[in-house]
Automatic annotation (TrEMBL):
Residues 16-132 form the AAA+ ATPase domain. CDD domains: AAA. Signal peptide: none annotated. This is AAA+ superfamily ATPase. Pfam families: AAA_14 (PF13173), DUF4143 (PF13635). It comes from the Bacteria. InterPro entries: AAA+_ATPase (IPR003593), AAA_14 (IPR041682), DUF4143 (IPR025420), P-loop_NTPase (IPR027417).
Amino acid sequence: MINRAIEATVLRSLNFFPVVGILGPRQVGKTTLARKLIGELNKPVVYYDLELVEDFETLSQNTTWVLENNINKTIVIDEVQRLLPLFPQLRALVDRKREAGRFILLGSASPDFLQKSSESLAGRIAYHELMPILKSEAESSFIPQPTHWHRGGFPDALLAPDNGYWYQWQQNFIKTYVEQDLSAMGISTTIPLLNNFLRMISHVHGSLLNYSTLSNSLGMANNTVRRYVEILEQAYLIRRLEPWFVNVSKRIVKSPKIYIRGSGNLHFLSNIRHYEDLITHPIAGASWEGYVIEQIIPLLDPGIRPYFYRTSNGAEMDLILVDGITPVVSIEIKLSLAPALKRGSTESANDLQTEHNFVVTPNGGNIAVRPKWLHCNISELIEHLKTLNMVAQY
């Protein structure tokens, strides 16, 4: 089993907050993490999985009895978004006996979970987002970067015996999301059209999000496309990276960039079955860019916000990290091993006035390429961000 960096942070919350919520996409390892945490708690635990019919019926039909008769235990409720009316009762029980670590709630693919729990449990719950296994976590289990980049960070897919099993896992994963989760979240269209929608997004991965282009290509209304993109983002499948506006006198690109968050999902949707196919595929550069971004953003301190930067005259930066209203770090992401900088990158750094600028490539080396610019790999970059106090302490 691969150890997750977030474990210590979740345990810390369990020692203070009555309720701890662990959010993340399907199959990311929330249940595995919860079972490991259970073993480290110094109190008895009762576990309910609401995907099991018997557990769902037990909690939905006998809610008060179950909760009150386990008042001295930690109650773990998996897939809690399936029983949203539970939250007001949790609040009443917490207020009756406010004690740390009373409930662990696991939820996926549901904006209603956040809304309902925030309304009912405000001040009583701490949220933690569990994302697919990071490169640093994979390498601690001797999984090399090429494998992790190609397969992505979903545990079962990453640890599959071969690429055939990996591809089959991805196929089942996308099928489940398309046929169950996304339809339950409000995407009411045919399965073939939704599959085409996902594949269309894989084609524009790393590009500016143009709703009209997607709308015209798919024969869908513009507002429908916008709503579907929002749902995919809420389901942790895609990321919209917003642009940073540094100078209102410049003609700044206003559209966000869109990424499929899981590199393995992207490669499956692009029919890339092997790493050797990936490095020669036209999407390789954009895939590497999205992969690097997903290794950085989950580690950031909550006060640090990620953006990209682009102007109409060609100045562009793949990722900038902003503290408050001050851009601090500029990051150019290149699949090429050569750390050469384009004019657009240097112009962007000048516009942003960032003191710390990095070119991230697969191999890196911590090599100074020009004043205030360092060529590094992902691991080296994270160490620099730690030095700058931009990474949350796990």
